[in-house]
Amino acid sequence: QLDGYLPSLHNLEKKYPAFLKETCPHVLPESAFESWKEDERYHHPSEADKAGFRAAANSVWKKRGPESRALCVLRAMDYACYDKLPVNDFCEDVYMSESFSNFTAL
Q1: Which residue, among 53, 93, 51, 59, has the nearest Cα to 76 in the 3D structure?
Q2: What is the pLDDT of residues 44-72, one digit of tens each?
Q3: Which DSSP state fits 65?
Q4: What angle in degrees, to the nearest 10, is found between the helix axes of 89-96 and 66-81?
Q5: Rounded Cα–Cα distance for residues 76 and 69 (Å)
Q6: d(Cα 19, Cα 23) in Å, to the nearest integer?
Q7: Whole-angstrom distance, CA of residue 80 vs CA of residue 73
């Protein structure tokens, strides 16, 4: 049973070992993560984001348009399953809207 959630990748080298220790203490010792940041095996060329996908996604999110509302719908199950995951105000408004409560999947 998964009863934990790591909501951000910020400061992952510190937060992920602590998260594992709290939620599944017998998986890996903290020492297993000491050098992973420098180890090329744990990196992917897409991390550099040379195409600017991260900036484009942030721009779309800030507009709070239909695409942003769709992202909220895609994350609805995360919020339903993980009670410690904070819901931002925009998505909360989406979830409380009449159109969301009347939504049915095709």
Answers
A1: 93
A2: 777 788 888 888 888 988 999 999 998 88
A3: S
A4: 90
A5: 11
A6: 6
A7: 11
CA distances 27 to 3, 36, 40, 101, Å, are 15, 16, 22, 39
Closest CA to 22 of 8, 45, 5: 5
Two structure tokens written together for 63: 């507009």
Q: 10 Å Cβ neighbour count for 30? A: 12
Residue closest to 78 by CA, chosen among 2, 23, 19: 2
Q: How many other CB atoms are there within 10 angstroms of residue 74's CB atom?
A: 9
Tokens read off for 15: 């937060």
E strand spans, 4-99: none
Q: What is the pTM of this model?
A: 0.52
Q: How many residues does the chain have?
A: 106
* pLDDT tens digit sequence for 24-33: 666 666 666 6
Phi first, then psi, for residue 78 (nearest 5°) are -60, -45
Residues 6+ apart with CB under 8 A from 84: 4, 5, 7
